[in-house]
Amino acid sequence: KYFNEYLTAIVVSLLSISYSSLYCYVSPTLPILLSEGSPIEVTQVEASWIASLMSLGALVGSIPAGFLINSVGRKYTLIIAVIPMLVSCILKLTSTTVIHMYASRILAGLGMGITYATISLYLAEISSTKIRGSIVIISSIMTRLGILIVFTVSPYLSFYTLPWVLISFPLLFLITFIFMPESPHYLLAKDRESEAKKSLQWLRKTDSVKEEIEMIKLTITKVTENQSSWSQVFTKGNQNSFKFFFALATCTQFCGQQVVILYSHTIFGQVNGFISSEASVIVIAGIQLLSTIFSSVSIDRLGRRPLILVSSFGCSLCMTIIGVYFYLQLNNFDVAFITWLPLFSTILFLIFYNIGMATVSMAIGAEIFSINVKAYAFAIESVYESFLQFGITKLFPLWAAAHGIYVPFWMFAAVTGILFIYFWVYLPETKLKPLPQILEEMEMSKNLEFNFLKKCGHV
């Protein structure tokens, strides 16, 4: 019954493998670039720019995403996104200077920014209500798969051979996704009902889609009474949605996952552990994939809210423990008997992160905005997350060098802990609710503080 929906989700999520493999590419290659005999001469400062410039590119790529999503459609926006990724891979194959590396990272970021602003929206709009959560999370599963592939094969490939692996994913996406359907929501919003009907019939594997077509049309009619524009994004009806969206985005970035992925080889290189840094990061990538798969099968059973609460609390706890280890090590305490602690805590952190913040936050974001502002909302959120990514990845090595590596980990723990309290107080449940019902509840719940007090019986 749901085969075509899952097939479409897997094919479009090849783009997630593409940008995640390009993103984590620097983790195994930065130690090579900073070593003697490097194929490209790179300083420590230049290395930090190589690590962070993809996030800066994503910030720039996110800006036109809202316009593209509404003008050329979800499908062709994603096809546009793959082009800079392909060029980035070609540059990696031919790089001879640090400028080439900079350009490669920026181009990969452009594609990532457009993809990130579009893919969850596309997946939410093609999926049935009963499996919407698990469909949206397929993108996150493929993101983790891309990281696992890079971490697994990189020890056995040279600096100039690894990009051949990276380029295969965007090429495969381009060849297969061209045959996938456009979002029926977008087609109906553009008065292309016959195309929307064909798209929905193929996705649902049935000719009986009249009722769903009418429901989508009713939703579009309600929301398009206000024209789709940037000004509509900031109306009172969307304020609650943005509060949740920005809180989830802040927690996703400030929990520390960017640092763990980008600098994992460097971090574990500082730990005199019982396994090598290369083996550690492969274990980490595998754990990420497995925990994301768990999230995909549990999101529509356990609900969004419980997973976010467990995830944010667990991430805060693990970042605290990792910070304690590095504090003890830096202050010359004997840590020989707990060399296993950083790897164990990082594995726990990634389990907590991937069962909630990495996956469920995307599903919630795809559910809480009306169709006339959803594209702009995702573009704004993508710009915001890219800005945080850039700042964190650029500043982490500077914070660690200036104040000790434990300081940023404790900062991540504090921010995530505060946001856990916010989610516990305010975050609603959207499990198995039709999109029109969720939008109506967002519209009716404009005052978060009032609703919390009312829930507690104080007003």
Automatic annotation (TrEMBL):
TM region(s), chain numbering: 7-28, 48-69, 76-94, 106-124, 136-156, 162-180, 244-268, 274-295, 307-328, 340-364, 376-399, 405-427
Keyword match NAD: no
InterPro entries: MFS_dom (IPR020846), MFS_sugar_transport-like (IPR005828), MFS_trans_sf (IPR036259), MFS_Trehalose_Transporter (IPR050549), Sugar_transporter_CS (IPR005829)
Assigned keywords, A-Z: Cell membrane, Membrane, Sugar transport, Transmembrane, Transmembrane helix, Transport
Main location: membrane
GO cellular component: plasma membrane
Annotated PANTHER family: MAJOR FACILITATOR SUPERFAMILY (MFS) PROFILE DOMAIN-CONTAINING PROTEIN (PTHR48021:SF46), PTHR48021
Membrane-related topology note: Multi-pass membrane protein
Annotated protein name in UniProt: Putative trehalose transporter 1-2
Domain Major facilitator superfamily (MFS) profile: 1-431
MF terms (GO), sorted A to Z: transmembrane transporter activity
SUPFAM superfamilies named among the record's database cross-references: MFS general substrate transporter
Locations listed in the record: Cell membrane
Pfam short name (any one): Sugar_tr
Lineage: Eukaryota, Metazoa, Ecdysozoa, Arthropoda, Hexapoda
Domain of life: Eukaryota
